[in-house]
Each structure stands twice: as C-alpha cells, then as structure tokens.
Write the structure tokens for this entry.
Amino acid sequence: MIADIHFGLKQLWKHRGYAATAILTLAVCIGANAAIFTIVNSVLLKPLPVPDSGRILLMSNQYPNAGTGITPFTNSGVPDYYDRLRDTTVYEEQAMYNGTNQAFEINGSPELIRGMAATPSLFRLLHVPPAYGRIFDDSEGEIGNEQKVILSYPLWQQLYGSNAGVVGQQVRLSGRPFTIVGVMPKGFEFADSEARFWIPLAFTAQQKSDDFRHSNSWYNIGRLKPDATIEQAQEQVNAINAANFERFSQFKQLLVNAGFHTRVERLQDVLVRGVRPSLYLLWGGAAFVLLIGAVNLVNVALARSNLRAKELTTRLALGAGRAQVARQLIIESLLLSLSAGAAGIAVGYGILRALDVIGLERIPRAHEIHMDFMVIAAALAVATVAGWLIGLVPAVHLFKVNLSTALREESRTGIGGRKTQALRRVLVVTQVAFAFVLLIGSGLLLGSFRNLLAVDPGFKTEGIITATIGMPRVRYPADKDVVQFTDRVLRTVRAVPGVAAAGGTTIIPLGGNHSDSVILAEGYQMKPGESLVSPMQVTVTPRYFETMGTPLVKGRYFDDRDNEASPGVIIVDERLARKFWPGGDPIGRRMYKPSNPRDLLKIDEKTRWLTVVGVVREVQFEDLAGRSTTVGAYYFAAAQPPPPQGAPRGLALAIKTSGDPAAVLGAVRAELNKLDPAMPLADVRTMQERVALSLMSRRAAMLLAISFGVIALFLSAVGIYGVLTYVVTQRSREISIRIALGSTPRGVFRLVLREGLWLVGIGFVLGLAGTAALRRVLGGQLYGLGAMDPRVMAIVMVLLGIIALTACSLPARRATRLDPVTVLTEP
C-alpha cells in the first residue's frame, strides 16, 4: 500500500496539469456542499442548545379562515395557558414568554436592549441552571413582586465586567428598579438570539379572565414527560378546545367558521419553518454540482486511462494482477479526492464567510452556524466516496480487457472500446441534464427576485429613516400622557433642520411586528359559514402616510382635526375595502370593533362607531411577496381614544429627510434626549435597509443558485468538449478515410457536431423531465412566475445551447483539419 501511494504521488506529480484540474474541480464541488451542509446541519438538524430540546413543544392557536398573518400563527392566550396547566398530563413543565425591550443605563446613557419576559417556570422547563445566583421562583410571577432580572453572560460582562458580586444589586430598566437575581451561563440562548436579559412575566386578573380568550399575545411551550408523545399532547389540547366550545357556546360557530384549532409542534420545527424548504433546495443544488463534478472527473479519468492504455496493458502482460492495477488506479483517485476534500473544506469556509456579507445572519439560529467535526468528516467522506467512484469506473474496464487485442489495437481503440465511448456519452448526457435543472432553478430564482424588486410595497423608501421609541407605564401612566408625549416628540422632530416630514406608527412596514384584531362593518352581511376577519391593526399619527409616501386612493388622510374631541374616524386599505364594500364607496361608511367579548356581534350603547374617511394603497407589512393571509389593514388615529388594549406604548418614527440622513439623525437624537433623556431611539434603519434586509435570504439563495448554475454550465461544457475530442481522436482513421474518399470539411464538421448536439438534446429532454418533477418544490420559492415558466426555459435553452454548440464546434473544427496521409500512414 505504501508503495502504491508513493507511485501514485509520482504519477500525479508527473501529470500536474491533470491533478490540479481534478483537485480544483472537486474542491469547488465539495466546498459548495460543505458550506450548505454546515448551514443545514446547524439550523435544521442540530437540536436547540438546551437539554432534550426535542421534547419542547409549542402550542399555537390557529385561525386560518380569519386571515391572521403571513405564516401559521404561533401565539396563545393567557386563559389557554392556565387551561393547559390544569387539564394536560403529558407535560412535566409549561411556560409562557415573549420579547420585551427595556432601556438600560450604559455608561451614563440609556440604551434600548432586547430581552424576554417569561413565566418563572421557563428556566425549570429548559433545565439550564444559572452561572451565578438563582432562577426565578413562582412568587416572582405575581403582580407587585416581578421586578427581578436575570442577565445574559454578555450583558453581565458589558455592564459589570464579569463581577460575580452583582447578584442582589439593583439596575434600572426603563425607569424602574429591578433586582439582579442571576446570570445565565456563557453561550446560553433560547428562541430569541437577541435576548440579553429575562424578567418575570406576571399576569393581571383581567388577563387571566375569560374575557381575554383568543387574545393571543404570548408563546406557550411545554416539555413532554419522558414517556409522553407529541400525539398525546395534541389529543389533550384538542380535548380542552372541545370542552371550551361547549363552555362558551356563543363563540362556537364563530370559531368553527374561523377554522380555529391549536397546533402542537416541536419548537425547533417552528423556529426554522420559514427557511427549511429553501435550505433543502439549495442543498439539493449543491449535490447536483457535486454529481456534475464527479461525472466530469470520471470522464477525465476514462480519457486518461485511454492515454495510459499501453502502460496499463503492458503491466498486465508482464504479470501484474488486474486487482493490483485496479487498486493503483483507485489509490491515485483517492489521493486526488482527499486532497480536494481538504481544499474543499477551506473553500466551504470561504463560502460561509461570503454568505455572512449577503445575509446569512438573517436566518434563524444563524449564530449557531459553524463548521464542526461532523461537517469536516462528512466532507472527507464525500471526497472518499467520490475518489472510489472516479477510480472504480476505469478500473472495472481492466477486468474486461483482452490483452492480445489491447496490445495490438491500443493505438486505435484503447482500453474499453465501444463500451467506454458509450459510457462517456451517458455521462455527458447526465451532466447536461443536471446542468439544465440547475440553470432553470437559478433562472427562476433570479426572475422571482427581479419581480420582487418591482413590487409596489405601498410606500416609498428614498430618504426615509425609521426608529422606535418606548413609553413605559412607569413614566407615562395614563393613555393621555402617551398621546401628549407622542405629540411633543413629533413636533420636536419636525422642527429639526433637514426633516421634510415626520409621522408615527405602531407598526413600521417590514419591521417584524404584527398586530391583528377583529373589526366589523355596519350593514355587512356574513354569508353562512363565513368567518370573522382579523386584519392588521395599526395606529398612526397625522402626516405619517405623507411621510411614507403611501398613496391615497379615496377620501383623505388623518390630520389635526382627528383628535379626542372629534367623532371617531378610521382609514382602511384597498384590500379591506374590497372585503366589506365590493364595488362600493367606503367613504362615510361606519365600522366598529366588538365591545362585548362575550358577544362579538352585539351592537349596544357601548359600541364605538368609526367613520371611514380614507382608503389607502395596500401596504406590504410583512413580506414584499404579498403572500400574507391577512385580509387587509385598518388604521386608527393616534390622537383619538385608544383601542381597548390602551394607547400604544411603542412608537415607530418615520422621518423623511431633505439633507444628509446621518446628520439629521444625530440632530434628532440630540433633541429627543433633551425631551426625555431616559427614552433612547432603537432599531434605527432607513426604509431602503429594511427592504434590503427583508430580501437578504432570498438574495443569498439566488446568488448561491446562480453560482451553482455557472459551475454546472462550465463543467458540462468541459465534459462535452472532452467527449467529442475523444471521439475525434478515436475516429481519426474513419474521418480520414471519409476525407480521402471525397467528404468535404463541411460534411465532417456536421458529422461531429451532430453527435454532440444529439447528446445535448437528450440532456435537454431529461433536464425538462427533472424540472417538471421538481416543480412543486421550486414553486414554493417563487414569486410572479411558475416553475415551468416558458421565458426562463427558453433563455436557459438558448444559453446552454450556445455554450454546448461552442463546446461541440471546437472538436468538430479540429476534425476537419485532419491530414489523411499522416493519419492513414501511422503504424
């Protein structure tokens, strides 16, 4: 074996060009697979970084017919939580949580930091002890005793320089004192990678009451007992819902019409649901690239074995065993492939770093993505298998060689003869088919991305800065305080030089927030079985729509007359207007939000009527693809009496600038700091950045797919060229005889070209079949075109056809230049 390895290294050094080409080809293919497998393994396959995370389930209420959002809903209500605590037996622990933003004082200035509010049971459920101090106890989940905080390891280091004595000290969060009771261990993260602290979640008696059923604002998770199953959990939750249907029979038909049910899923599956199809699709594309590369190298290995035919047959004739020579060929291939595997790991690492630049950090669990031993082992295993297959194909032919024939005719036919030629043709057809599928996929993703860029999102992006500001109850206890402070903030911002316009909203488009709520229109008659609808609910200030450039379709925008002393008004978007008044004029019509949680359709003296004063263009709040299942949006005026849940305490500012955005932003910060130093700006981004961030995952997938397609196209062209060159070499005597008997150069050119085009044509047919088989997988990733889009098909066929024609023409031209005298007089 050592001698074989030594001899193999000498052979590869002797043929350095071949070795370098093979290593480079396979390294690129393995590198692409290593990068994608790293992502798939870290995001989809690895368990969450908490003990036995596969037993952690999420229970989420679903209303598919009510239009509640872009993805299946993931939240539950507080009464549901207590029902499930009482009536389920499959869980050893349950918890509720959600994100929260709090202002910490860092180096003397407030900074808004992302954290999590969770029931004290969360850390017991996760089975993760703190590094210092303790976790919350149940008493701290009660109103009045909840001002405790647990810090993440990075926040503890930032605030206290790793001082273990911080436990028991106080820190102010948004103006309120909190006692530090613990510090979580280094590397601990759960559900939200941006969460840097945890505070106890305490519910009021009202939130626990039946009036708050189906007010879904929290995530409800449970840890299964070791002997319980997810199917049992689903059955028990279904039983609770069925019992509640009978307990609250007045809601039963409404909930049935809305399609209400509770979905029980593994939390990990929910967290990565949005990226799973695209990641598996990219993984399949990377596998295709590897197959094309391997096929190409098999072709090269066959050609090289033909060139070494005299050497190999002579060794066999001198007594070398066929198995010994075959082993030598395989060892040479393994040396190549393992070298390529090591280089491929480096290439994969480089691809991952490049993906960081184009949006890798935007996918769930991105912080966990890194190459580990499993990825490296998988890459080397792939390299080993590829080496075996590449070496095995020419080695197999050794066992079919007739030595006397091979020694006598090797100059004309070489090892393998017609069967070798047939195999090489099959390999080229396979390459073309795989390349066709990859090019179609990348073309479809490119076309889809271009369509998304052309979407009218319902707002402008140029020169608009957005930021959020919080108004905690401790500083602004009453709704009127919130309204007054909002007005002061906007007046201050509008007075800053360089600010052309400014407005405020509760939900900034593409900001990642969602709020929906049932609303009804006066006189609208629901059809039998029709569901109540829950559109997006947004509160905006005057001049917000003008700042964002949201077009007015009918009526007017909100203005200063829409205050607490004036009649209630509302603005709807086109989609909601079509829902309630198809073909009619919504202006002047009245709408209302249900005021009686026990009878949603009841109209009484408490009903607050809102008159429609305007219709605006539909805004894409969640996704530029417009695939949201919401039935539209409605807008409240910020200065009028707030909705039932109270005035919004999170305000998103939209600022249109006429000067340098950076300078304007600095001036805005300075002025707001004078207004309230404890209220920092957070999540500061331009609308162009928000649009770019919303498209980053699609952009990364598109760029990867295009890269795979380009590699596949190049390798296929090389394969076609190599096979036809081989054919010309093998048929040189036949072609020379044709020329000697009077065949024209054009006829010879057509002869060779026809063979190449036949191979390409068969590859096209198989590629079309493969694309048709994958159309359902591709269709879910596209916008504005189908998986068999004829324009993309035509472009790919023309592009691949041009490249293939070029690859065929070069050997065909070479064939026309053969000298019959020279070829036919060779021994």
Notes: Residues 73-228 form one domain.
